[in-house]
Amino acid sequence: MSSASLIPHSKLPALGITIFTQMSALAQQHNAINLSQGFPDYDGPQYLKERLAYHVNQGSNQYAPMTGVAPLREAIAEKTGVVYGWQPDANSEVTITSGATEALYVAITALVRPGDEVLCFDPSYDSYGPVVQLAGGTLKRIALQPPAFAVDWAHFASQLSDRTRLVIVNTPHNPSATSWQSQDFDQLWQAIAEREIFVLSDEVYEHICFTAQGHASVLAHPQLRQRAVSVSSFGKTFHMTGWRVGYCVAPVAISAELRKVHQYLTFAITTPLQLALADMLRNEPEHWQKLPEFYRAKRDRFIQALAPSRLEVLPCQGTYFLLADYSAISELDDVAFCRWLTEHVGVAAIPLSVFCADPFPHKLIRLCFAKQDATLDAAAELLCQL
């Protein structure tokens, strides 16, 4: 073999192109309504765009501090205090990242050592497993069952071992659209209190929660937040997924370690974006305050439009996704059904089985309702014809 034909040994040999990219490409190919990948088909706030232009024109175009610009970190700390009753230190406990995905990566990489076990709940977001693998850890998945997708805490406790290093939580949960409540975090604390286990709480949909109690955060739990990383996303909150700005809140010692990874991964996030987001948080807080109402209306409109269909819609407590059971329509497995739905019906969805390691026998698909009303109505009309 010549040196020109060297092929690297893959660290992630089982991975290919994500299902989200595949389904979006298929939707584009067949001119289908794309309810698969989770992004809005409407723009973000006008004020936010104006503030971005302002800061660009003011010359704020050089490197930001590695941890994030001070105005944004301070605005995040103040907002956290208002929402969760505890205010982190803006200098040492808040870190701005390149979207929530980078925040997840730096947290897992900083905390997980070779040989460690990481527990997560299936169905689970697809980025957790590969990062754990790259860190040399082993991912143990605890399967949750529809329609409630509730945690069996006795079973969870039985899965803990001396090698368990990290538990990954996601609430509101993508893809099941369920939400934890404060008692879930109480149960988690009871299970791990006497063990040296960290918590990574993926809370990117924190402001899209429809339960009467509202969003329960790990940051509101006095004991858990001392050993936890909370991850948030401005892309979800402000309808700007392409901006790729997120952040994590963690105690000083944990933040110091994840910042070591962050500084050699992206170092710093785009300066004018951060400054614009700081202005948005301080001057238009009503945007995130009204977000549950905004998305609840979209959820209810879509559910009502699907009522005549043969789809059985599962309860939706949070996120901008719905799960639907198609067993009355087809015997196809969920991956094949989603391809058929895109190619022959004109609506793209995501099969739920791709979020699970073990075989998932349920006929469930995920539909995104972060779309204009006309888009949702057109999709529902097609789905009601099945």
Describe this structure in words.
By secondary structure, the chain is of the alpha/beta class. Helices cover 39% and strands 15% of the residues. The chain is built from 14 helices and 13 strands. The protein has helices at residues 19-29, 46-57, 70-84, 99-111, 128-134, 153-159, 182-192, 234-237, 252-265, 271-283, 286-289, 291-306, 334-345, 373-383, and strands spanning 33-34, 94-97, 117-122, 138-143, 164-170, 198-202, 228-233, 246-249, 312-313, 321-325, 347-348, 350-351, 364-368. The chain has a seven-stranded mixed β-sheet, with helices on both faces. It is globular, with a radius of gyration of 21 Å. The N and C termini lie far apart (55 Å). The relative contact order is 0.17.
